[in-house]
Amino acid sequence: MDDLNLKDKQKEASEAKMIDDAFQHLLDTYLSTRHRKKVDIITKAFNFARQAHKGVRRLSGEPYILHPISVAQIACEEMGLGSTSICSALLHDVVEDTDYTVEDIENIFGSKIAQIVDGLTKISGGIFGEQASAQAENFKKLLLTMSNDIRVILIKICDRLHNMRTLESQPANKQYKIAGETLYIYAPLANRLGLNKIKTELEDLSFKYEHPEEYASIEEKLASTQASRDTLFKQFTTPIREALDKMGINYQIKARVKSPYSIWNKMQNKHVTFEEIYDILAVRIIYTPKTRAEEINECFRIYVAISQIYKSHPDRLRDWVNHPKANGYQALHVTLMSKQGQWIEVQIRSDKMDEVAEQGFAAHWKYKEGDINVDDDNELNNWLSTIKEILDDPQPDAMDFLDTIKLNLFASEIFVFTPKGEIKTMPAGCTVLDFAFLIHTFLGTHCIGAKVNHKLVPLSHKLQSGDQVEILTSKSQHVQPSWINFVSTAKARGKIQVTLRRINREKQKEGEQILTEWLKTNDREMDMAVVSKLCALHGIEKPDDLFLNIGKKTITLGNKELDALNDKKKENSKTWRKFVPFLGNSNKDIKKKALLIVEKGFNKKKPVIISEETIDNFIYPGCCHPIPGDDILGYIDNQNRIEIHKRDCKVADKLKTSFGNKILDAKWDMHKQMFFDATIEIRGIDRKGMLHDVADVISDKMDINIHKVTISSDDGIFDGLIELRVHDRSEVKEIMKSLKKINGLQEVLQTQ
Question: Does the active-site annotation cover 96?
């Protein structure tokens, strides 16, 4: 017993030392920055948090207090934030996980820190109802507080980064939820705030947990091609160094290697192999100007010098120096042709531009003395006001809300001019109507078209960088439902939806009234069970949409609806099917009965196993066509059935972000007994015997059944679609590998 006590005391002492060392490291980091040295309040916050989290451990087994210290360390070291942020990071879980309230924090540490901690505290569950997304609500709260103080979101990103770095200890379903949410929301947020380094790490960590095999494969290939990249970098930069040395410029040249996630993303979108990606290496020239006044001139002098050594790509010059991105990013990007016949992108930035590129808006606090451009600050405020507008009119649906936010986060930018020559930053792909709503809601609502560069164009006309736009309006013009299809900005979409909802609301009320009266005449009352049955009958998800359709007269209430309410089924067709099973649908009926329904007490941490015996227990939506070998996950739908999605499915991305508590781990356990559909697209130079060679590879060498082949040839180039019956994903990969070896076959893509 004494031995046990002794061991416990030793463990306690070693953990206390570990905590003290971690905090000391944080203080040392803070003291080496340019911030005012407010050590007392940081120590006070640490002691308070340590006391509050005493005895609590993380899933990994380490004391919980190490997590807030790590978050504060990231905020201080990697973002350059000061004492207020460090204190808020140390206290960020106190209100959520202990009995202390926001008022307690305010009394001890002041209103500013209390406000940030409140913004970081999740809304306690139970008030949204079963189907509502608490995740989206929490995110909404985060953004609301962020619009008052940007540090809320910065600390949240630090928190998320540390959670991602320690994700290993979480069960698989939690990993997919957190990784999916990170990729969908937090990485774009970090990007929008200019936190390039953090954005890249968040993407790579998400990728690592969602697709571990692909991640390991790319990491391995990057390691094996390192030597050839080093050689190319040396050969390419040697003449550049000589030229810059002659000019007497103070510079350093770095190699920038594309991240595993970016490589994988490109492989998926462009349907290319690792070997076919040529922009893995980029070169970064970081210079220190002699004076700040000469900063921009020096940037262009370097550009002129290097474009005399190598030929530049005419369409690949990006001037972010004179036109900074909305997140404050400044640099000059030029793509040059190397002596090895390879295009290489060169990024030219000053030391200050580089710091803002890595730390983004977080550098705002670093340069508080007035060392940062005023424009950057304005851009941040513009962005925050856009977010405020979205929050002023929150979408009723969690998914819509997240999509609206994402529209603002992801878009790359173009510059558009007003008739008076004012410059407006817009997302790429925006239309005339987007621009009208950006200027003023009235202009958007009554917009009939525009003059772009003095030429008349319709509402749906897509704008290009450098366009000058004059909006034309008419009082007789009103918002149309079709407008939603050709706007891409959050503001325009939000305003259109508000107007349409107002119109729809009237129709909904009308529809509800019609339904109530119809039920009354059939001796029934309006309740949730009745509405659910009618929604199911018409394939409608939300009751509001049912009322709307009734109000618009697209649904007419009659005998069909009565039968559904009385649970009457068409018996005659069923009896026929009993005797004639090949009439169709009999299999569907069997499958319906076989579907697994999630009951209370279901263990969400255990993986769902899909085998030959259990395959019919689950739903396979048409959004992504998962087949054995794909990285998959499960999702518990509104009827407690389990859907199976690929982990990188677009629908699954939204589900992970909005309904993370319904995500399950899922694994294949198939034994190559069943066949699945797969489609391969081929393209190449036509020649005699091409089809024979393709069929030979698939049927004879691989022993795979070809279900259907369509091939067309035009001017010596052929396109083809091959539908196959395969056992799993590895067979598809093997077939594609073999097809690529056929002479004249240029592209082999998998379509599903």
Answer: yes
